[in-house]
Protein backbone atom coordinates (compact mmCIF):
# COMPACT_ATOMS: atom_id res chain seq x y z
CA UNK A 1 0.00 0.00 0.00
CA UNK A 2 1.20 3.49 -0.84
CA UNK A 3 -0.15 6.52 1.00
CA UNK A 4 -0.44 9.85 -0.82
CA UNK A 5 -0.35 13.34 0.68
CA UNK A 6 -2.97 15.92 -0.32
CA UNK A 7 -1.50 19.41 -0.36
CA UNK A 8 -2.29 22.92 -1.56
CA UNK A 9 -1.19 23.76 -5.10
CA UNK A 10 -1.99 27.40 -5.83
CA UNK A 11 -5.71 27.82 -5.18
CA UNK A 12 -6.37 24.10 -5.69
CA UNK A 13 -5.31 20.91 -3.96
CA UNK A 14 -3.08 18.21 -5.38
CA UNK A 15 -1.72 14.80 -4.51
CA UNK A 16 2.00 14.24 -4.15
CA UNK A 17 3.20 10.98 -5.74
CA UNK A 18 6.29 9.61 -4.05
CA UNK A 19 8.80 7.59 -6.08
CA UNK A 20 7.09 4.31 -5.21
CA UNK A 21 3.67 5.55 -6.41
CA UNK A 22 5.26 7.00 -9.55
CA UNK A 23 6.90 3.66 -10.31
CA UNK A 24 3.68 1.69 -9.70
CA UNK A 25 1.75 4.01 -12.02
CA UNK A 26 4.65 4.32 -14.48
CA UNK A 27 3.92 8.03 -14.39
CA UNK A 28 6.19 10.97 -14.99
CA UNK A 29 5.81 14.73 -14.81
CA UNK A 30 3.20 15.93 -17.29
CA UNK A 31 1.35 12.61 -17.60
CA UNK A 32 -2.42 12.46 -17.18
CA UNK A 33 -3.84 10.13 -14.55
CA UNK A 34 -7.48 9.02 -14.43
CA UNK A 35 -9.52 8.69 -11.24
CA UNK A 36 -12.50 6.38 -11.65
CA UNK A 37 -15.17 5.58 -9.08
CA UNK A 38 -15.71 1.84 -8.63
CA UNK A 39 -18.04 -0.15 -6.35
CA UNK A 40 -15.11 -0.81 -4.01
CA UNK A 41 -13.75 2.76 -3.93
CA UNK A 42 -11.72 4.73 -6.45
CA UNK A 43 -9.15 3.62 -9.01
CA UNK A 44 -6.16 5.77 -10.01
CA UNK A 45 -4.67 4.69 -13.33
CA UNK A 46 -2.54 6.10 -16.15
CA UNK A 47 -4.93 4.51 -18.67
CA UNK A 48 -8.06 6.23 -19.97
CA UNK A 49 -10.89 3.81 -19.11
CA UNK A 50 -13.09 5.20 -21.91
CA UNK A 51 -10.35 4.60 -24.49
CA UNK A 52 -9.83 1.09 -23.12
CA UNK A 53 -13.59 0.43 -23.46
CA UNK A 54 -13.57 1.67 -27.06
CA UNK A 55 -10.55 -0.49 -27.92
CA UNK A 56 -12.23 -3.56 -26.40
CA UNK A 57 -15.30 -2.93 -28.58
CA UNK A 58 -13.10 -2.48 -31.66
CA UNK A 59 -11.27 -5.74 -30.95
CA UNK A 60 -14.59 -7.55 -30.53
CA UNK A 61 -15.85 -6.19 -33.85
CA UNK A 62 -12.59 -7.12 -35.60
CA UNK A 63 -12.82 -10.65 -34.20
CA UNK A 64 -16.53 -11.17 -34.93
CA UNK A 65 -16.49 -9.58 -38.39
CA UNK A 66 -13.01 -10.57 -39.61
CA UNK A 67 -14.37 -12.05 -42.86
CA UNK A 68 -16.27 -8.86 -43.69
CA UNK A 69 -13.26 -6.69 -42.86
CA UNK A 70 -10.98 -8.93 -44.96
CA UNK A 71 -13.36 -8.58 -47.93
CA UNK A 72 -13.51 -4.80 -47.50
CA UNK A 73 -9.70 -4.61 -47.45
CA UNK A 74 -9.46 -6.07 -50.99
Layout of helices and strands:
Elements: E1 5-9, E2 12-16, H1 19-25, E3 34-38, E4 41-45, H2 49-64, H3 66-73
Antiparallel strand pairs: 1-2, 3-4
Biggest sheet layout: 2 strands, antiparallel
Tally of domains:
2
Mean pLDDT over the full residue set: 88
Strand content: 25-35%
Element string (H = helix, E = strand)? EEHEEHH
Give the helix tally.
Answer: 3
Shape: elongated
Gap from first CA to last CA: 52 Å
Assembly state (oligomeric): single chain
Integer-rounded radius of gyration: 19 Å
Per DSSP E runs of 2 or more residues, the count of β-strands stands at 4
Low-confidence stretches: none
- Class from secondary-structure proportions: alpha+beta
Fraction of residues in helix:
40-55%
Spatial strand sequence of the major β-sheet: 1-2
What are its keywords?
74 residues, alpha+beta, 2 domains, two-stranded antiparallel ribbon, 42% helix
Descriptive report:
The protein contains three helices and four strands; from the N terminus they run E-E-H-E-E-H-H. It has 74 residues and is α+β, with helices and mostly antiparallel strands. It folds into two domains: 1-28, no CATH class; 32-74, no CATH class. The strands form two sheets. The protein has a two-stranded antiparallel sheet with strand order 1-2. Strand 1 and strand 2 form a beta hairpin. The mean pLDDT is 88. This is AbrB/MazE/SpoVT family DNA-binding domain-containing protein.
Amino acid sequence: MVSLKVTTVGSSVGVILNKEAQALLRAKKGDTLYLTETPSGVLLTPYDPEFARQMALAEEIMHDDKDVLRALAK
